[in-house]
Design brief:
alpha/beta; ten-stranded mixed beta sheet; two-stranded antiparallel sheet; globular; binds S-adenosyl-L-homocysteine
Length: about 350
């Protein structure tokens, strides 16, 4: 059970403002354990400490990039599963956190390191939120670094929409207890259309940003590199985008399509043409071109010239295309490089 459910179970007769105090305390960097939460009386604190776990994850190690702008943490769950989360400085100089939503992933995208691990289990909403809290405490211990966390992206290990309820709960908690608004949270998906459709019907799904990993607007190419794809995918995605813009009709609303640049695979003039046509049909879409980060696979990132050509071709056609900055490649913390092995039972505890 996650903390919300445990609270309902044990403290449902407490006044609602108390829940706010208790959950709020989890997002105060100066509190490091329940005993520190002196805004609650001692009896309540002790009772809560026996009922609600303070932290669901344990640090194994943290890697720091040479430029001190990217950090990658290896964290263990209570059942000994290992996950990674990344802290990276964004263009505004604040921090973006990349969180994992599952241990491993079932989507098996051929270019992704996590895809090679297979799927182990979903993370609970506590385990997702606690990745954010891990970095919050980390920064509190590093006053040489900027302190503000301004964004969270669900782009770590796993497919967030395959863990819908826990991801939704974690988004709601982050929106309630941090300063981040919905446009500061981005959920990236391989494009699970049944779940994307579900979002449009779910009144509780918060209006966060969505990014869809397109990677090719050519059916055969997409099927080759992403086994979860199928013949009618592009057509169905296009239909869904129309409904998405109807449901979330706002000037600020847009959709991001992610596009990894794989040399000779999806970066030819034919692929650019199909992507332009697709983007035009969809409308308010941003294309985010991602340099491919090495994962010891058969792929290479598009060469400088081919990359630039592709990008310019899109821009000349009036498509809003930008290139994603690559961070943390020296510590294998970049997109698609997150992979961990199961922990051996003995000798790893600190
Ligand atoms: N399951 C989600 C989140 C995955 S990670 C999804 O599919 O969107 C976030 C992005 O990184 C996805 O677009 C993913 O396809 C991409 N990615 C995976 N491996 C990569 C690699 N080696 N280099 C660059 N991007 C990669």
């Amino acid at each position: 059970m996650n903390r919300e459910e445990l609270y309902q179970k044990h403290f449902s007769d407490w006044p609602r403002y108390r829940a706010g105090q208790i959950f709020g305390a989890l997002f105060e960097p100066r509190f490091k354990k329940w005993e520190d939460v002196t805004t609650l009386n001692k009896n309540d604190r002790n009772l809560i400490a026996t009922r609600l776990p303070w932290m669901s994850l344990e640090k194994r190690h943290v890697l720091e990039s040479a430029r001190h702008d990217t950090f990658k943490a290896l964290l263990a769950t209570h059942d000994g599963k290992m996950i990674e989360t990344v802290l990276m400085q964004n263009a505004r100089g604040f921090w973006s956190i990349c969180v994992s939503s599952q241990v491993g992933c079932a989507m098996a995208c051929t270019f992704c390191a996590t895809g090679k691990m297979g799927f182990t289990r979903n993370l609970t909403s506590d385990e997702i939120i606690d990745q954010y809290r891990f970095w919050m405490y980390f920064l509190d211990g590093r006053h040489d670094l900027e302190q503000r966390i301004s964004n969270v992206v669900y782009m770590g290990m796993g497919e967030p929409l395959a863990n819908y309820e826990n991801v939704k709960q974690s988004l709601k908690t982050l929106l309630e207890y941090t300063e981040m608004g919905p446009t500061r949270l981005t959920v990236s998906t391989v494009g699970l259309l049944p779940m994307l459709s579900h979002i449009l019907k779910d009144p509780e799904w918060p209006p966060v940003r969505l990014a869809v990993s397109l990677h090719s607007a050519d059916t055969e190419t997409r099927k080759n590199i992403m086994p979860s794809s199928y013949d009618a995918f592009l057509e169905n995605l296009e239909k869904w985008t129309k409904e998405y813009f109807e449901r979330f009709d706002s000037k600020r609303r847009h959709l991001t399509l992610e596009y990894i640049m794989l040399a000779g695979v999806n970066d030819t003039p034919m692929h650019a043409k199909k992507l332009i046509q697709f983007a035009r049909r969809v409308g308010k879409v941003k294309i985010n071109l991602i340099p491919y980060n090495d994962t010891k696979s058969r792929y290479h990132t598009s060469a400088g010239g081919a990359f630039l050509n592709f990008e310019k071709t899109l821009q000349m056609a009036g498509v809003d295309a930008t290139r994603r900055r690559t961070m943390g490649a020296d510590i294998a913390a970049a997109c698609g490089q997150l992979i961990v092995e199961e922990e051996k039972t003995s000798n790893t505890k600190p």
